[in-house]
Amino acid sequence: MEQTESTATSTDRHFVTAEITAAWPEVFPPGRLILPEFRHMTLLFLGNKKIPPLPEPSWKLPPIGILGEKWIFLPEETPRVVAAVPTFLAGEKELLDYHAKLAPKEKFLPHISVSRGPFDTKAWMEFTCHIPFFIRGVALYKSLGHSNYELLWEKKSLLPFEEIEHTADIAYIIRGENYHQLCMHALLALSFTFPQFIDYFKKIPDVNSIENIIKLLNQWIAEIDIREGIGLKAVSYHAKVETKETLEWTMIVDV
To answer: From CA 67, how far away is CA 119, in angstroms rounded?
Structure first.
């Protein structure tokens, strides 16, 4: 979507966000949950100021991470919102650099609002989960009130993975600028459906071929299956890496 020059009226409220795709759980502690499609990371609140030209983010493949390991309550004095603080697995510096271009004088605390008050503070403080996420793009919105927004501009990221249809199996297109990133994004794809894979992000060694990645993933599938059972058999060794905007690998997982 092309960015357009715009001025704001006295009642308009504009803001720039990082758009979040996450494997949100179905059950949260008590509170007025924000709809998943409206959960975002605010990068810049413009209010009714004139909208400046917005830079595009520098990353080709987006920041990724885990949500749900820490919750904060904002504003601190009279909390009205519960927000998840991200633990980044990759891309944090690029996100911070992008925010610095948007708002060089503003302090930035990355967070994603998930629930509005009233909420059960104690239950949220004790609620720990591991929600994989990635930033699918940045966008400029106008607030229409009552949690409704009008999209004015967006710059989409190249997706780290996409699930595709495959007869009787699970299949994904995995993207990465190198083999390590391919492995990380393969884990991210699997963790969206099978959260047992999240613990393995810290165990990724140096990998220099798709065969190494497949061997590693199959080792982890076997470990999880022995430990607790999982509805996966193995990642197929019939694999080919193509060079497009990035490296692309069609990962087929036998179920």
So the answer is: 19
